[in-house]
Amino acid sequence: MRKKIAFISLGCPKNQVDSEMMLKKLSDAGFEIIDTAVGADAVIINTCGFIDIAKQEAIENILEMGELKEDGQVGKIIVIGCMAQRYKEEILKEMPEVDAVAGIGNNGDIVAFVEGVLSGEKETAFPEREKMPIEGERILSTPSHWAYLKISDGCSNCCTYCAIPSIRGPFRSRKIESIVEEAKLLALQGVRELIVIAQDTTRYGLDIYGELKLPELLRELEKINGIEWIRLLYCYPDRLTDELLETMKTSEKVLHYIDLPLQHASGSVLKAMNRTGDDKSLLALIEKVRQYMPDCIIRTTFITGFPGETDEDFTILSEFVENAQFDRLGCFAYSPEEGTPAAEMENQIDKETAVHRGEIIMEQQFDIFTDKQRDLVGTVQTCIVEEYDPCSASYSGRTWMDAPEIDSAISFISDRELAIGEFVQVEITDVNEYDLIGEVI
Fold first, then answer.
1. What digits encode the pLDDT tens for the residues 418-439?
2. Where residue 344 sits, what CATH number does that domain have?
3. Are residues 367 and 408 in the same domain?
4. Do 407 and 384 contact (CB within 8 A), yes or no?
5. C-alpha pair distances (Å), 78 with each of 29, 74, 348, 373
6. Global pTM?
7. Span 372-407, pLDDT tens digits
8. 141 by DSSP, 3-state: which?
9. Shared-domain flag, residues 162 and 234
């Protein structure tokens, strides 16, 4: 009888792609992949170790699996991924329910590792981070009509608040040919939307080609039959070049949507973060993007309560948010991460103040966002069909302006039956808080 494996993937889409590659290896090796932990011979938890809330989520999952194990409903518990890479000794010492821990460099050897654990040995494996595969066949965990396309791994930016370089290692790009080949396979599987991801998407190619190659990669991807939408996440403002903007502007498939995490707008805070720019230069960048693509949807994220953030710094950020009028925005209270320079900085801001400042930014953004949503009423937008609700006899999906899992949705009715993954033209008729309401025309 085949051994049953359950997989819990936590954290970012990059981690999710790693999980999909490991699922494929395990499936090819003869393991049965099941959707629920109950009845699994082994549960693999691919953890995130980026910020406190992610680590807490991982711990809660481990403890939950531990309870199932104690009740005899789960066999072995295997912890892998970023938190395992970062806290291997603590996990083994403080969580006796865990049978095995492995770092990211062991992802390529997941089959042999699991076999060893199932044989009854308590396993650990922490080869060099650079041994982690950054490409390979996958079993998609996303809906069949869209998929993440990871073009690199690691990061070399070294922002002072971020532990990713110490966890994942330096930036490593894949070859263009390899990425295009994977995208073609995804298209053959029915994928119609590619979401291009990396820790720093705009840095793509610099390490292996000696120059920024994202525009060239996008031009190759848009040649692929079957792919209709190409969406960019995790772009770095310093490398938003004219060539990239021109490529986006003229492409028929690259969406006028860009995720541009800016983190702050005060020059002094950005400098402390080991980032460049200030409110004036960043506002000029936003205006430049909109000059190239007036309809461009710009998503960003900010951190409030970074060490040394004064009332004046926060005011600069708040005024910047008002002036920039972002289409999508997330804001997070700073949390000190062990081993990062920012955690050792003086003038740490108390958690209550950091959270309160973040709430103010999100309240600002809510007003901006709702106004933008109301402005869409009466317009016709291209949408992708994602679900059908027989109770309300309506469909739900996303406009081209919305990335899956992070942005808003749209519900709409149709006189004809629609297929999941189909693109339709929808007239926007109303707004329900964050989400849109419409009718297929």
1. 999 999 999 999 999 889 999 9
2. 3.80.30.20
3. no
4. no
5. 18, 11, 36, 44
6. 0.94
7. 999 999 999 999 999 999 999 999 999 999 999 999
8. coil
9. yes
